[in-house]
């Protein structure tokens, strides 16, 4: 029996989200704030003001969201350790969250990861002109969604890109193709199809140009051997070789996030509890829908951190 940590990515951000981790004495707030200050110093921009004061529209911009969420995830990780929490048996992160997992594992330094995710975000936004790409969440079977994508693509691209839970998949591609697929999925029996408020078709093959830019930068960043195993998104594999980890991050940018398989791999590694390390509760909710018998908890505030310090 063991527990795993998972780190959320883009979509879990909200203005004021780090206020939930403050205590009366201020020590816990200092751990959180110092993490943001560290990232801000590297990037030359005040991330703390952005997350504390907004506006939400600025926080939601991809080039801001990705470094902010990295800082938030690592702040909660550091707070967990500061409070005496044990290190988990295995780590994973959803999309952007994989970078936080690699920092927690010791593969990447936080100082290197912050500018890396900003470059990743900028490259993703530049890969597809604003307004021409889209994403949507579909509640339906994989067979329905794959068939609808193939039928509705036309001269565009639309693909399943996030396999988030059994019966819940995100598609991405050209906006018109995504819209056609949404309607076709509903016609084929999907329970619902909802457009997502994002600015680019993340993890679709349209992100290949972004991956090439990311590859160049990754070649310049120092990678260390992992101290804690990390299950990657693209292969659902644990890699220890730095070059293979780099390659997986490049391919992750334009390949699907295989989250259902990730949680099931954790269960196969004797994980019985999945812990979401960062603001929000999305991944904790998904975990229970990915595999039978696995428990989950979200460290969404200071009280939940303190309540779960006895995890072993």
Structure description:
- The protein is α/β, with parallel strands linked by helices and 312 residues long.
- Helix content is 47%, strand content 15%.
- It contains 13 helices and 8 strands.
- It has helices spanning 27-43, 47-53, 56-59, 62-82, 97-105, 110-127, 142-152, 175-187, 208-218, 242-252, 259-268, 282-290, 302-307, and strands spanning 2-7, 90-93, 133-139, 158-165, 168-174, 192-195, 271-276, 295-298.
- The strands form 2 sheets. It has a 4-stranded parallel beta sheet with strand order 2-1-7-8, with helices on both faces.
- Strand 4 (158-165) and strand 5 form a beta hairpin.
- Helix 4 (62-82) packs parallel to helix 5 (97-105).
- The termini are close together.
- The model has no long low-confidence stretch (mean pLDDT 95).
Helix and strand topology:
Layout: E1 2-7, H1 27-43, H2 47-53, H3 56-59, H4 62-82, E2 90-93, H5 97-105, H6 110-127, E3 133-139, H7 142-152, E4 158-165, E5 168-174, H8 175-187, E6 192-195, H9 208-218, H10 242-252, H11 259-268, E7 271-276, H12 282-290, E8 295-298, H13 302-307
Parallel strand pairs: 1-2, 1-7, 7-8
Antiparallel strand pairs: 3-5, 3-6, 4-5
Helix pairs in contact: 1-4, 1-6, 4-5, 4-6, 6-9, 7-8, 9-10, 11-12
């Amino acid at each position: 029996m063991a527990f795993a940590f998972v780190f959320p990515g883009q979509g879990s951000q909200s203005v004021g989200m780090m206020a939930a981790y403050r205590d009366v004495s201020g020590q816990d707030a200092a751990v959180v704030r110092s993490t943001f200050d560290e990232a801000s110093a590297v990037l030359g921009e005040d991330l703390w003001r952005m997350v504390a004061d907004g506006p939400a529209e600025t926080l939601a911009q991809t080039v801001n969201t990705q470094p902010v969420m990295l800082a938030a995830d690592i702040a909660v990780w550091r707070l967990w350790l500061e409070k005496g929490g044990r290190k988990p048996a295995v780590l994973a992160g959803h999309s952007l969250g994989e970078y936080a997992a690699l920092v927690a594992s010791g593969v990447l330094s936080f100082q290197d990861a912050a500018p890396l995710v900003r470059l990743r975000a900028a490259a993703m936004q530049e890969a597809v002109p604003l307004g021409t790409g889209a994403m949507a969440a579909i509640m339906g079977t994989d067979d329905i969604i794959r068939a609808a994508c193939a039928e509705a693509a036309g001269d565009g691209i639309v693909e399943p890109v996030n396999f988030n839970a059994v019966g819940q998949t995100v598609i991405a591609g050209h906006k018109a193709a995504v819209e056609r697929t949404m309607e076709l999925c509903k016609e084929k029996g999907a329970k619902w199809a909802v457009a997502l408020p994002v600015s680019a078709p993340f993890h679709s093959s349209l992100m290949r140009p972004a991956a090439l830019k990311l590859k160049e930068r990754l070649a310049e960043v120092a990678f260390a051997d992992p101290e804690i195993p990390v299950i990657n998104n693209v292969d659902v594999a644990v890699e220890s070789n730095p070059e293979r980890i780099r390659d997986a991050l490049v391919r992750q940018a334009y390949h699907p996030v295989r989250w259902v398989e990730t949680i099931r791999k954790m269960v196969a590694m004797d994980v019985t509890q999945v812990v979401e390390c960062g603001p929000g509760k999305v991944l904790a909710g998904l975990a229970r829908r990915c595999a039978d018998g696995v428990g989950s908890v979200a460290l969404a505030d200071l009280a939940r951190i303190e309540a779960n310090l006895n995890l072993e």
